[in-house]
Predict the structure.
Amino acid sequence: MKIVHTEDAPSAIGPYSQAIIHSGLVYASGQVGVTPSGEWAHGGPADEARQALINLSNVLKAAGTSLSNVLKVTVYLKDMGDFAEVNAVYAEAFGDHRPARACVQAAALPKDALVEIDCVAALD
């Protein structure tokens, strides 16, 4: 098991790692729409989703893989009414790659985020 950390994504705000590598897989913790410097992406759910996916991509890069190797994604939304807007940003980020995915509405997300995204990816 190996812990992954990068300065190119927000530091964990609790007793967890940005990601863990184990048995050829990367288990990436949830990312919200906060820049590595701690600033929120402004503009709503699409902007938060875009920043969360940038953060996730940077964590995966630090682990030695990329979004193109993602096997499973979970998207957490504060409001399921934001599904279409977030889905469009998600489609941009993943292109033709179609990992398995769940999308759920959460009663509350860390730091009152509108979107949180985590994933499991294979190593290159």
Q: What stands out?
A: The mean pLDDT is 97. The longest strand covers residues 25-32. The chain has one domain: 2-122. Residues 2-122 form a domain with the 60s Ribosomal Protein L30; Chain: A; fold (CATH 3.30.1330.40).
